[in-house]
């Protein structure tokens, strides 16, 4: 009933031609650009990697073997686990979580500062300055960080000049460059949702709390953070999803011994030409991150609707 | 509850860069008083309130609360509670949590806080509504919750920044009475900021009228209305008809002013300006609309004004008659509705009289802009 009303209003406001066109375009986007590609990946993940001649033949049946490979490896007796890939998977998820938490702590004070010093020209300039590096391609940014973190990079040179270290520190091998790169890659996606919600907080509420004797910690715990929660969660969701699914930063900044799960997916697709296996890995990553996000939202009592606000 | 504590402002000047928001304000507020700062927006009244609450430090001068200098003491350490213009209730907390927030800050247990909140809810006639969210309350109820929240900390001084301005007329009038009642009940000092002279006059023991950062007059509402000390106060508080002219003669506290349009008129010199007004000075004489009446034919010309009627409006309890006045301004006469059909006809030449004791004269000055 209510849905019907929304649609009739929609056509009334936009006219039949424009309305049909808009709905058509949105449906096209949803169906052909999001749902169908994902469904085809899902379908791939349950099939054997067959030579082209056998596709559609009697051997082309559904199987769980691609998923079993992630857990047990090529051991068909299921005696040993695929510890290499599983380790990479768990490490990717945990690292993405840490990157997300790091970004929350880094962005919150900044978002608070930007959001509460409303309308000043200086703040607007700061926001523009934050955006400018993102005009540059993600891969170039990752290479720039690699140069900064390199043995004879800016950071090591500076540390040695200040005599804080005598030998250059291997930031790449110790994964420091990787985490810095991941943190940096999506930090604006954390900052802006937070900035938006904090900007909408009535300053008088902070002053009222202060007037009633609340400390800064108490004000943030009881007033600012509850208000900013939807923004924090929506930023955290994006940063976590994108970090877990990042490819450029791990490829360029990762140490030789540390693989990111997306790199495994990439290898299956590109090097092994086993799309079925790659699709299974990708689906596992997607499903796990969705489950984690939903669980965290449940724990922090945030609804989907709040995030869209 | 604590009894009233005096608040003194000594030579307060507050500057923001080059702009002086408050200039040399001296106010002494008795403990337990309902004191209002009245003035148009931008006159510096909110700035004064912020200086008392501790959100800003005066550039010069001292704020004393209960005789103690408040310099360097933050808003959270002062015995004041502030009610904001938009109330600033916490939308994500329940009503009872809002009310008892100051106790939460002080570390009281949930049971203690709930008990105190329920007591206060009873006091503001909102018993049993503690578990609602502020958004579920009406405007007047939110207002009362904000008062209860401020009173919860047992402040010595309650500061109110135009808290009624968001309410509709009926509710606003009702809340005036209620605020005054609450103030009498708790007995603490209330400092009230408003641009609404009706609010200031009905509720306050004393009123300070402010203009562009300067306090023009501090007095009881009655004296401010009857004996305004400057043209600004005379024209800002209530309605007033102004007659410009030069002082012709002075005898005691009465003066005759040769007005630009109505000849020589007799009036009182407003008490604050007795002695300041000299013969030959530019002067302004004010007569309230309700002090004017239709003149009998034998009326004394020194208290009679003749003018052409421009318009007449029926206001229910009274008629407002507008007559051609001085310098493009209309003279307004207010006549109580006692069953007449009308008072005048358009274009009619009317003679109006007044009692000299109801007209006040003072040195010419700036009027309140309308």
Automatic annotation (TrEMBL), chain A:
InterPro entries: MetI-like (IPR000515), MetI-like_sf (IPR035906)
GO biological process: transmembrane transport
Domain of life (superkingdom): Bacteria
Subcellular location: Cell membrane
Membrane topology: Multi-pass membrane protein
Main location, first listed in the record: membrane
CDD domains: TM_PBP2
Residue spans crossing the bilayer: 15-36, 88-113, 119-136, 176-198, 231-253, 278-300
Sequence ranges assigned to domain ABC transmembrane type-1 in this UniProt record: 89-296
Record keywords: Cell membrane, Membrane, Transmembrane, Transmembrane helix, Transport
GO cellular component: plasma membrane
UniProt family annotation: Belongs to the binding-protein-dependent transport system permease family. CysTW subfamily.
Protein's recorded name: Spermidine/putrescine transport system permease protein
Organism: Litoreibacter meonggei
Automatic annotation (TrEMBL), chain B:
GO cellular component, one term: ATP-binding cassette (ABC) transporter complex
SMART domains reported in the protein's UniProt record: AAA
Keywords: ATP-binding, Nucleotide-binding, Transport
PANTHER family: SPERMIDINE/PUTRESCINE IMPORT ATP-BINDING PROTEIN POTA, SPERMIDINE_PUTRESCINE IMPORT ATP-BINDING PROTEIN POTA
The ABC transporter domain, residue ranges: 7-237
Protein name, entry field: Spermidine/putrescine transport system ATP-binding protein
Entry's transmembrane regions: none
GO molecular function, one term: transmembrane transporter activity
A Gene Ontology BP annotation from the UniProt entry: quaternary ammonium group transport
Pfam families listed in its UniProt record: ABC_tran (PF00005), TOBE_2 (PF08402)
């Amino acid at each position: 009933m209510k849905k019907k009303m929304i649609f009739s209003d929609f056509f009334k406001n936009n006219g039949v031609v424009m309305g049909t066109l808009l709905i058509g375009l949105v449906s096209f986007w949803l169906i052909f650009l999001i749902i169908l590609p994902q469904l085809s990946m899902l379908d791939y993940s349950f099939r054997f990697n067959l030579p082209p001649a056998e596709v559609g033949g009697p051997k082309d049946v559904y199987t769980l073997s691609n998923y079993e490979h992630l857990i047990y490896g090529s051991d068909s007796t299921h005696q040993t686990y695929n510890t290499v890939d599983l380790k990479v998977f768990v490490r990717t998820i945990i690292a993405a979580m840490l990157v997300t938490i790091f970004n929350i702590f880094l962005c919150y004070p900044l978002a608070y500062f930007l959001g509460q010093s409303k309308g000043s020209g200086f703040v607007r300039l700061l926001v523009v300055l934050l955006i400018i590096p993102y005009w540059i391609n993600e891969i170039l940014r990752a290479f720039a960080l690699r140069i900064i973190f390199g043995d004879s990079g800016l950071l090591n040179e500076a540390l040695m000049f200040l005599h804080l270290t005598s030998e250059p520190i291997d930031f790449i091998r110790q994964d420091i460059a990787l985490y810095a790169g991941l943190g940096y890659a999506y930090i604006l996606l954390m900052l802006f949702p937070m900035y938006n919600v904090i900007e909408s907080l009535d300053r008088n509420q902070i002053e009222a709390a202060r007037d009633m004797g609340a400390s800064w910690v108490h004000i943030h715990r009881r007033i600012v953070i509850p208000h900013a929660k939807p923004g924090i969660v929506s930023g955290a969701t994006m940063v976590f999803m994108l970090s877990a699914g990042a490819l450029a930063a791990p490829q360029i900044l990762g140490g030789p011994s540390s693989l990111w799960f997306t790199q495994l997916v990439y290898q299956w697709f590109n090097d092994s030409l086993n799309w079925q296996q790659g699709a299974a890995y990708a689906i596992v990553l997607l499903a796990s991150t969705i489950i984690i996000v939903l669980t965290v939202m449940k724990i922090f009592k945030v609804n989907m609707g709040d995030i869209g606000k | 509850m604590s009894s009233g504590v005096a608040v003194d402002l000594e030579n307060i000047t507050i500057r923001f860069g080059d702009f002086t928001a408050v200039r040399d304000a001296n106010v002494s507020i008795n403990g337990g008083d309902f004191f209002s700062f009245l003035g148009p927006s931008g006159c510096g009244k909110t700035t004064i309130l912020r200086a008392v609450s501790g959100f800003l430090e005066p550039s010069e001068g001292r704020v004393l609360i209960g005789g103690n200098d408040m310099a360097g003491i933050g808003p959270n350490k002062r015995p004041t509670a502030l009610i904001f213009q938009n109330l600033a209730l916490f939308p994500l907390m329940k009503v009872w949590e809002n009310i008892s927030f100051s106790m939460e800050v002080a570390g009281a247990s949930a049971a203690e806080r709930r008990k105190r909140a329920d007591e206060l809810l009873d006091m503001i006639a909102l018993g049993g509504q503690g578990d609602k969210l502020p958004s579920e309350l009406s405007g007047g109820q939110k207002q009362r919750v904000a008062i209860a929240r401020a009173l919860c900390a047992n402040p010595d001084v309650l500061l109110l920044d135009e808290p009624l301005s968001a309410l509709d007329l009926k509710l606003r009038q009702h809340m005036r009475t209620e605020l005054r009642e609450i103030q009498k009940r708790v007995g603490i000092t209330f400092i009230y900021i408003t641009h609404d002279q009706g609010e200031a006059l009905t509720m306050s023991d004393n009123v300070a009228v402010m203009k562009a950062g300067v306090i023009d007059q501090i007095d009881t509402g009655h004296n401010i209305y009857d004996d305004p000390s400057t043209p600004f106060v005379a024209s800002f508080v209530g309605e007033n008809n102004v007659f410009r002219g030069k002082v012709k003669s002075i005898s005691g506290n009465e003066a005759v002013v040769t007005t630009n349009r109505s000849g020589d008129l007799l009036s009182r010199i407003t008490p604050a300006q007795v002695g300041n007004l000299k013969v030959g000075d530019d002067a302004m004489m004010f007569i309230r609309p309700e002090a004017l009446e239709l003149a009998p034919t034998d009326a004394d010309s020194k208290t009679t004004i003749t003018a052409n009627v421009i318009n007449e409006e029926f206001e229910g309890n009274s008629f407002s008659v507008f007559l051609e006045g001085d310098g493009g301004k209309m003279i307004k006469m207010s006549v109580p509705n006692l069953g007449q059909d009308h008072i005048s006809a358009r274009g009619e030449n009317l003679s109006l009289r007044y009692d000299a004791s109801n007209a006040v004269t003072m040195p010419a000055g700036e009027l309140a802009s309308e």
